[in-house]
Amino acid sequence: MSSKQFVVIGLGRFGSSVARTLYALGNDVLAIDISEAAVQEISDSVTHAVQADGTDENVLKSTGIRNFDVAVIGMGDDVQGSIMATLLVKELGVKYVVAKAQSEIHAKVLYKIGADRVVFPERDMGTRVAHNLASSNILDYIELSSDYSIAEIAAIPDWVGKSLRELNMRSKYGMNVMAIKRNGDINISPGADDVILKDDVIVVIGGNEELNEIKDGK
Exposed, middle or buried, 189 (CB in 10 Å: 0-12/13-18/19+)? Predict the structure, then answer.
């Protein structure tokens, strides 16, 4: 499983949820917040947690931020801070920047200054975004409970050309296939003889642990 390095700046509900989930998925996570209480609360659930101002260029440089694959800017309520942090991490060389926005106008500004993706806080959105970022295969992810989730998975090479019967996902992965998306069409409740093609997207429901195992193409 290939892990990535993430920095999460701003540990409100969204930022904390992203940081914890990314770490639980086996990635290196640096969490930064100006609040000591927020940093203490998350310190056992990430690789490193630092109390610092995420809008201070010198602070960000000192963390070696250019070495991180992805930055998540979680300080959406502080619009000015979020814009500053997004601008800085992009300028300092982070390749992919995800920022939380409060409004459409805020989102437009974030895109203009270099954010690669802007998200709006929704229930469980942090968990969902973390799975999207940590995985090349899982395209979308909705946590139903602490045990089960629905995921959209891009067909991995091992599945292509095989029928659902051959793949036997229930016994192999503990997952049930709900639908197959192909060229814009959705096949709801596919049969055992339906064969997976190269660009198919499989919609499954399954245990969170099993979905984590599959996320890197296992």
Answer: exposed
Contact partners, residue 188, CB within 8 Å, separation at least 6: 178, 179
Residue 63 near residue 81 (C-beta atoms within 8 A): no
Per-residue pLDDT of the chain (218 residues; tens, 9 = 90+): 457 899 999 999 889 989 998 998 889 999 999 999 999 999 999 999 999 999 999 999 999 999 999 999 999 788 999 999 999 999 999 999 999 998 889 999 999 999 998 988 754 566 777 777 777 777 787 777 677 788 888 998 999 999 999 999 888 888 889 889 998 888 887 899 999 999 999 988 888 888 877 765 55
